[in-house]
């Protein structure tokens, strides 16, 4: 447990947030699937990403981990095995709390000549895996939920011949899309995934850089298609990981709600499939300036954020929903905190996916903010926040959900009294130094 007090003065500072979690995962995976060496700088040394490294080591991939001597930046070197040279693991592969590791690795394991089993912690064992079991089975894989509940542990029977499919995903999910694309690298024929809106496209950008023939196409209604033509060899690359916008979101929020604050957040990824929070907050009146923008490969910029009084439209209402939701799904808990301080009613909808994250984030966010004095109600696919009521300190159960712990730490900055966050250590899943960095700005 950690006890936090209201900020008594503006937050000021210049900060680097850890590397992007999604890109860090993929850099290890795609490097392992490639021939030659992949060097990754700025890798996120969090529990989730270290789970990915450990899984590939168990498959026989040589991975070196070092710090650059001058600036201490984490550098990972992956000596790739190529698509067809993995070794059978001697026991169950364990992914910890990482849904990305679990679902993306499933696409790779489904195509191997050997049997394997993958599982994670208690949270992962409750998260739905039928969304990948169904398309992988359609591709010819044999995937079994060991407990018969469409969750992990998952058993993969080796030696199956995979073929490409055209799959219409009911939700915009980068994990589902990437799982299919990774299995598609081994399949005969093209693999095609239709999405209601383009989900995170880190897989497409990075796999293309490694040599894969993969691209997106778009329709007028905003729906998207990802197409992979298999057969192209993958070659090791040099990857520089930008800062994670999901981690930056907490400090964006902190600067916006503490009067007089000004924070510069360096080298943050601003990929449009991830940066919906920037567009939404701009519409709510946030003072956020992008500096030193670099559009090459994975776009990035420095973010200068100043205190702002957030507001809705002329009817004192703001609606967040539709196709912007997949671009900010992980940021919605901290957006709810911002909405609690805004001079308007904020409606978050089309976000039922929040129910199947590390916790049921609709239920846990609403419960926590209500304890802090916010007028908030849950809906089937989101929440309605009646902003403007002063917040007060409370005891908050993080439910071992890193994004909840960090979001309520930001809420504590403007809450009268003491806020205690139970199981605050869970921030190590994505941002091990979060509380130290937050204190540095105070």
Question: How would you describe what is shown here?
Answer:
The two termini are about 20 Å apart. The chain is globular, with a radius of gyration of 21 Å. The model has no long low-confidence stretch (mean pLDDT about 95). A hairpin with a 5-residue loop joins strand 16 and strand 17. The strands form seven sheets. It has a four-stranded mixed β-sheet with strand order 2-15-17-16. Strands 4-5-3-14 form a four-stranded mixed β-sheet, with helices on one face. The chain has a four-stranded mixed β-sheet with strand order 6-7-9-8. It has about 450 residues and is of the alpha/beta class.
**Tally of strands:** 25
The total domain count is 2
Cα-based radius of gyration, to the nearest Å? 21 Å
Largest sheet: 4 strands, mixed
Give a brief outline of the structure:
With 442 residues, this protein is of the alpha/beta class. The chain has helices spanning 21-33, 47-58, 99-109, 130-138, 174-184, 202-210, 245-257, 276-283, 332-341, 361-371, 402-411, 434-441; strands at 2-4, 12-16, 35-41, 62-67, 74-81, 93-94, 116-119, 142-145, 154-157, 166-168, 191-195, 213-218, 224-229, 238-240, 262-269, 287-294, 300-306, 317-320, 345-348, 375-379, 382-386, 391-392, 395-397, 415-416, 419-422. It is 28% helix and 27% strand.
Jot down its keywords.
UDP-n-acetylglucosamine1-carboxyvinyl-transferase, Chain, 4-stranded mixed sheet, alpha/beta, 442 residues, single chain, 25 strands, 12 helices
Question: Mind sketching the topology for me?
Answer:
Elements (H helix, E strand, L loop, with lengths): L1 E3 L7 E5 L4 H13 L1 E7 L5 H12 L3 E6 L6 E8 L11 E2 L4 H11 L6 E4 L10 H9 L3 E4 L8 E4 L8 E3 L5 H11 L6 E5 L6 H9 L2 E6 L5 E6 L8 E3 L4 H13 L4 E8 L6 H8 L3 E8 L5 E7 L10 E4 L11 H10 L3 E4 L12 H11 L3 E5 L2 E5 L4 E2 L2 E3 L4 H10 L3 E2 L2 E4 L11 H8 L1
Helix pairs in contact: 1-2, 1-6, 3-5, 4-5, 7-9, 7-11, 9-10, 9-11
């Amino acid at each position: 447990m950690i006890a936090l007090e209201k900020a008594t003065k503006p937050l000021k500072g210049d900060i680097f947030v850890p590397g992007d979690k999604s890109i860090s995962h993929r850099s290890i995976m795609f490097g392992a699937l490639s021939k030659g060496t992949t060097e990754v700088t700025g890798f996120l040394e969090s529990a989730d990403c270290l789970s990915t490294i450990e899984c590939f080591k168990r498959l026989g991939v040589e991975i070196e981990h070092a710090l650059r001597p001058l600036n201490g930046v984490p550098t990972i070197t992956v000596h790739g095995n190529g698509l067809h040279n993995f070794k059978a693991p001697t026991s169950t592969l364990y992914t910890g709390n990482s849904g990305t590791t679990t679902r993306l690795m499933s696409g790779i394991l489904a195509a191997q000549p050997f049997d394997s089993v993958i599982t994670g912690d208690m949270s992962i064992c409750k998260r739905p895996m039928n969304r990948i079991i169904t398309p992988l089975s359609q591709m010819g894989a044999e995937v079994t939920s060991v407990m018969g509940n469409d969750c992990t542990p998952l058993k993969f029977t080796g030696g199956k011949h995979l073929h490409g499919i055209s799959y219409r995903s009911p939700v915009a999910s980068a994990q589902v899309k990437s799982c299919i694309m990774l299995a598609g690298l081994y399949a005969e024929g093209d693999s095609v995934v239709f999405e209601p809106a383009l989900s995170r496209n880190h897989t497409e950008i990075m796999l293309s850089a490694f040599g894969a023939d993969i691209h997106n196409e778009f329709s007028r209604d905003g729906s998207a298609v990802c197409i992979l033509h298999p057969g192209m060899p993958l070659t090791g690359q040099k990857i520089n990981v930008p800062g994670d916008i999901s981690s930056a979101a907490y400090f964006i929020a902190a600067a916006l709600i503490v009067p007089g604050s000004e924070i510069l957040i360096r080298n943050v990824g601003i990929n449009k499939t991830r940066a919906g929070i920037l567009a939404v907050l701009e519409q709510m009146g946030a003072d956020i300036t992008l500096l030193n923008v670099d559009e090459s490969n994975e776009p990035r910029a420095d973010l200068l954020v100043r205190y702002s009084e957030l507001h809705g439209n002329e009817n004192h209402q703001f609606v967040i929903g539709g196709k912007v939701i997949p671009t900010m799904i992980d940021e919605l808990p901290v957006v709810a905190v911002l909405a609690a301080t805004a001079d308007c009613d904020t409606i978050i909808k089309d976000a039922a996916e929040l129910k199947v994250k590390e916790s049921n984030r609709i239920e846990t966010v609403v419960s926590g903010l209500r304890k802090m004095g916010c007028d908030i109600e849950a809906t089937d696919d989101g929440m309605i926040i009646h902003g403007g009521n002063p917040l007060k300190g409370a005891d908050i159960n993080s439910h071992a959900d890193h994004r909840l712990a960090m979001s309520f730490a930001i809420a504590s900055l403007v809450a009268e009294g003491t806020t205690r966050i139970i199981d605050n250590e869970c921030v190590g899943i994505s941002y091990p130094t979060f509380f130290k960095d937050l204190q540095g700005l105070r």
